[in-house]
Amino acid sequence: MDRTPVIIGVGLSEYPVAPDLDGVQHHTLAAQRAIADAGIEKSEIDGYVNAGGGGGMMVDDAVTMAEYLRIDHKYIDGTMTGGSSFEFHVQHLAAAIRDGLCDTALVTYGSDQLSRMGRRLGTGGFQRAGQRVSGPMQHEAAYGNSLVGSYAMHAMRHMHEFGTTSEQLAEIAVGVREYAMLNPKAMYRDPMTVDDVINSRMIADPLHKLDCCAITDGGGAFMITTAERAKDLPQPPVYVLGAAGAQTHWNVSQQVDFTTCAGAKAAPIAFGQAGITHDDVDMLMFYDSFTITCLILLESLGFVKQGEGGPFVAEGNLKFGGKWPLNTDGGGLSSCHPGMRGIFLIIESVRQLRGQGGEAQVPHCEVALAAGSGGWLSCIGVAILGRNHP
Amino acid sequence: MKAEVRTVEEWVKPLPQPDGVSAEYWQAASEGRLLVQQCPKCGNRQFYPRALCTACGADPEWLECSGRGTVHTFTVVRQYGARPFRDELPYVIVMVELDEGPMMLGAVTDCDPDAVHIGMPIEVHFVKAADDLGIPYWRPPR
Ligand SMILES: [Zn+2]
């Protein structure tokens, strides 16, 4: 019995704007589509994983959603590491499938954050006048830092240590936009230049508006089973070659080194499991909450040496036709970022490995690497997926 | 060390909720003293205050700081959605590397935001937000 973990189904709900769907409906629609894509019966699902939603409403946590979907599971996991949760889920499910804790598992995500809360998310609105703040945030809340500000402090330090420039960061946004222009559903599809990025208004120095991701609605789901079960299913199987996660901190003030992240610990584990090198990777799905997120992931995962990411990006290596095409669905920067984007990194990797990438298809795509960042470059999850049986 | 403590009539920003460990830290800050923790067993210094040494697990003790540090990294926040911060834009969020070692998050005052740079020396001062609660801020040394 071949228990190699295999992704057999993926599904998206509706994005980037879906005012008629609430978070639970996003989970559900994505699940229905992933189940249909996999070509199996819902009754076969005996594992369920969910990180909760982007809205923090506690109506779509793992146990509540398992009840809502009526999944008769024998394996459940509610790990929440922010946007990287779903790469951690791949790690956990790969082990659970191998060990026989379950045979066929469903992972879902859904968020209606744009329709419900609007666009203020990245620049405040969390902290209110006179509000009492407990826990570690009691040492941060009084100052009015923003989500963008936390990433901006990484960019500032990276620029200081390595001479990284705003133009280099902008190249990341421009490259991802080129892919968004090929995705009819992407939030932003107009052509964009480096000048457009650096001339867009500053949100938190040195990050401009166009260094920041979109705020959208959306949901996604994927299904994992054994290579054995996948043999007679309609879609080409996508193998989990390696998956690992690591954490350096949670709140930004506890970041140990603002120029790198826990990807430096997770990547060697994932690559070791996969038994491949960076040159074997055909495409990248990086968490692009901000341009700096991608640059630090690129370096910390070992695709380039620390400090060499800026020039490497400026050479066009992450663009359409480049060495490691990045975020072929248009990314969080231009297409879809409904709170916790990590599941979309898995889904687009699977589509590309099946050859279903459409105009954005990466030629001869055999290995894809998805790297999620949760929190403030806090928790990093790395999943390496492949078209061929390991 | 005893730094300047300014008292405000009404504190309109989010207010720390002191707990069993942090209450002493906030109390000291209201008196113009900045505390970090130091481990009597292994010497590790840490901030924010916790009930254990993050290096060895022992009970930490308090160390009074000089109130001096340098800018490790920072950002100038130019957009924020909610009051009261929206009314103060632009302002500087900073990671301060204390002379004693640990880093802490804060805000820089009494300085043009565009003059702040990494490596810049800064010193602490406090705003008294409640009887037993002072909030540390940072500014160029006087
Ligand atoms: Zn110790």
Tell me the β content of chain A: 15-25%
User: Biggest sheet of chain A: strands, sense, closure?
Assistant: 9 strands, mixed
Number-wise, the strands of chain B total: 10
- C-alpha termini separation of chain A: 15 Å
Q: Measured on Cα atoms, how large is the radius of gyration of chain A?
A: 19 Å
Assembly status: heterodimer
SSE succession of chain A = EHEHEHEHEHHHEEEHEHEHHHHEE
Structural class, from secondary structure content of chain B?
A: mainly beta
| Class inferred from helices and paired strands of chain A | alpha/beta
Distance between the termini of chain B: 15 Å
Helix and strand element order of chain B:
EEHEEEEEEEE
**Outline of chain B:** globular
Alpha-carbon Rg of chain B, integer: 15 Å
* Low-pLDDT windows of residues of chain B: none
Question: What does it look like?
Answer:
The complex is a heterodimer of chains A (390) and B (142). By secondary structure, chain A is an alpha/beta fold. Chain A is built from 13 helices and 12 strands. In chain A, the strands form 2 sheets. A 9-stranded mixed β-sheet of chain A has the order 3-2-4-8-1-9-12-11-10, with helices on both faces. Chain A starts with a strand and ends with a strand. In chain A, 63% of the residues are buried. Chain B has 142 residues and is mainly beta. Chain B has 1 helix and 10 strands. The interface between A and B is large, with 43 and 39 residues. The complex binds zinc ion. Zinc ion is lined by residues 39, 41-42, 44, 53, 55-56, 58 of chain B.
